[in-house]
From TrEMBL:
This is SPAG4 protein. The gene is Spag4. The keyword Transmembrane helix applies. Keywords: Membrane, Transmembrane, Transmembrane helix. Gene3D superfamilies: Galactose-binding domain-like (2.60.120.260). The keyword Membrane applies. InterPro entries: Galactose-bd-like_sf, SUN1-5, SUN_dom. Pfam families: Sad1_UNC (PF07738). It is found in: Nucleus inner membrane. GO terms for molecular function: protein-membrane adaptor activity. PANTHER family: SAD1/UNC-84-LIKE PROTEIN-RELATED, SUN DOMAIN-CONTAINING PROTEIN 3. GO terms for cellular component: meiotic nuclear membrane microtubule tethering complex; nuclear inner membrane. The lineage of its organism: Eukaryota, Metazoa, Chordata, Craniata, Vertebrata. Its main location: nucleus.
Length: 140
């Protein structure tokens, strides 16, 4: 406990650069359980989360690099609720069928947490899918 990515307040976002272009299928979010929390609560856990990809990010440009006059078109791949009463590691399916392409960046937007007004913690995020070149091999 304590070794997390924390951000101020109950809302925040992170853009993750993937090691390769990926056809996204799911995302896993992990927080600690109440049992190992020093305070006995996990109100700093994320609650409402949205996952986005950027169309410009798919062409090799980073999400965080776009200028103000060069607005990026983001596509929502899923909205879900991390439930503190369930397993600390939770996997959520993404709707990449709408955009059957590989992406090099994914944005995790935390819209709320479970009640901590000062900070929100995320312990681990895993992105699931197939690398672009693996999909080409399985189709051929």
């Amino acid at each position: 406990p304590g070794n997390c990515w924390a951000f101020k307040g109950h809302q925040g976002q992170v853009v993750i650069k993937l090691p390769a272009r990926i056809y996204l299928t799911a995302i896993t979010v992990q927080h600690i359980s109440k049992d190992v929390s020093p305070s006995g609560t996990i109100i700093s856990a994320p609650k409402d989360i949205a996952v986005f990809v950027s169309l410009l990010g798919s062409s090799g440009r980073g999400l965080a690099l776009a200028g103000a006059q060069d607005r990026e078109e983001e596509t929502l791949l899923g909205v879900f609720t991390y439930n503190v009463e369930k397993n600390p590691t939770q996997t959520f399916p993404l709707k990449n069928m709408l955009l059957p392409r590989a992406f090099s960046h994914v944005k995790l937007l935390v819209k709320s947490n479970w009640g901590n007004p000062w900070y929100t913690c995320i312990y681990r995020v895993k992105v699931h899918g197939k690398m672009e070149n693996q999909k080409a091999l399985t189709q051929g």
